[in-house]
Write a structure and sequence with these properties.
mainly alpha; 72% helix
């Protein structure tokens, strides 16, 4: 349990450093826009978090959108979006650590796999503009549950 909390804390520290401009201005900046440019997806999700009913958006992702809407009741919608996106990194590391440790029994190996999984390029890329796809923490959790 202590190792899992250490992995969560370390992954949180890494993503806070990587997203430092967002941490300094959470209501003005969103994660990843510098690297991938401007796309409409994050702004559509931010509007959803704010409670706007969007025409042509027939779906609602319960784990992401409901969480974002709850956060947007206490935070500005842009900050809620940033929390939802940035929290995927420590959660992915935590779940990957638990799954890898269950498989291997090696703390060191599980820690390495946790960081490789959490900060994989595909996760970083999707976190920049697809907050729903960036919710990769469910993958190792699903396999762990099996």
């Amino acid at each position: 349990m202590v190792d899992a909390l250490l992995v969560f804390a370390a992954a949180t520290a890494v993503i806070l450093v990587a997203a430092w401009p967002v941490v300094l201005h959470p209501t003005e900046r969103i994660f990843g826009i510098e690297s991938v440019g401007r796309h409409h997806d994050p702004f559509t999700v931010i509007q959803q978090f704010a409670g706007a009913r969007l025409v042509g958006v027939p779906y609602l992702q319960p784990a992401t959108d409901w969480t974002g809407r709850l956060l947007a009741m206490a935070l500005p919608p842009i900050a809620a979006y940033n929390v939802v996106v940035l929290l995927t990194f420590p959660l992915a590391a935590w779940c990957a650590f638990a799954f890898a440790f269950e498989l291997t029994g090696s703390r060191a190996g599980a820690m390495v796999s946790a960081f490789v999984f959490a900060f994989a390029p595909v996760h970083m890329a999707h976190a920049a503009y697809h907050p729903h796809i960036a919710q990769v923490q469910w993958i190792p959790l699903y396999f762990l549950a099996l």
